[in-house]
Amino acid sequence: MTVLTKRDKASEASTPEATEETAEQKRHERPRGVIAEWTVTILLLLFGTTTLVQAFVIPTGSMEDSLLIGDHLLVDKLTYAPSGSVGRALLPYMEVQRGDIIVFRYPVNPEETFVKRCIGVPGDRIRIVNRKVWLNGEPLDEPYTVFKTDYSDNYRDNFPTQPGGGVLQQGIQMLGSNVVNGELIVPDNSFFALGDNRDRSLDSRYWGFVPRENIIGKPLIIYWSYDAPTAHLEDSSISVAHIQDVLLNFFSKTRWKRTFNLIHPYELAHETE
To answer: What stretches of the chain show up as alpha helix (H) in DSSP?
Structure first.
């Protein structure tokens, strides 16, 4: 996936032949992408083990409304397999792309697992102005984002700037080493990740970059979605209160319309004038 710029669009449309060729390529590429996606999904569901997939539950609202509290996911651990991995030539492996939802070990405490959206890849220049993300000098179109507070926070909404409360030591180090001319520069083998619920997300603004080696995989499918409180889901063990809640309210609190929904990335593009 690439970030489209005005230059990209102009070059694609420079000649009728180029336009026809691009359109023809897209007609062929799109079906292959759908086929590959469903092929991986079916293979993982049929033959998945802890080596291939991992179950994960969303305990907080940082990814609302893309992922809800109580969404139970299967995470594809093969997609971002490193080069040289056995079987890399057999399945459609890829690099982490802008717009991908990624599951990773929390850099501050690797025993915790986080899920966020990748906004910046190595070399990208990032800043936030009045809640709007600018990537490499252009504002991003992000229809998946939500803002659920009625107050402003200068650091959160105008990033990077002087850090306020809640910024961890790793975040302060990031600001000290990776800001150039008011923009954050993503270093090699690192990624900048934000929650879709921008006002209520503990993300790269506060604790720094996601190291490549911390990335576990990408969410593949919601196999069950249950309207449970965060307190029932944050504990690694299953609480008695949660078991009782499920037994009493399984049918009424299961979000049936979300069951077996595939989780798709969003191809980040710049806003058009």
So the answer is: 6-12, 16-47, 154-157, 169-178, 204-207, 230-233, 240-253
Exposure of 47 by Cβ count < 10 A (0-12 exposed, 13-18 middle, 19+ buried)? exposed
Q: What is the DSSP string of 173-226?
A: HHHHHHEETTEEEP-TTEEEEE-SBGGG---HHHH--EEGGGEEEEEEEEEEEB
Instruction: Give the tens place of pLDDT for each residue, 215-244.
Output: 999 999 999 999 999 999 887 677 888 899
Looking at residue 270, what is its pLDDT?
Answer: 74
CA torsion 125-128-129-135 (nearest 10°) is 40
* Sign of torsion over alpha carbons 97, 71, 38, 9: negative
**Could you tell me which CATH number the domain at 6-120+190-270 has?**
2.10.109.10
pLDDT digits (tens, 9 = 90+) for 31-72: 434 455 555 555 555 555 556 788 899 999 999 999 999 999
CA 141, 144, 148, 153 torsion: positive or negative? negative
Positive or negative, the Cα torsion across 98, 99, 100, 106? positive
Nearest by Cα to 122 from 172, 184, 207: 184
SS3 126: strand
Q: What is the pLDDT at residue 190?
A: 98
Q: Quick one: which H or E segment has residue 83? A: none
Sketch the domain layout of the chain as residue ranges: 6-120+190-270
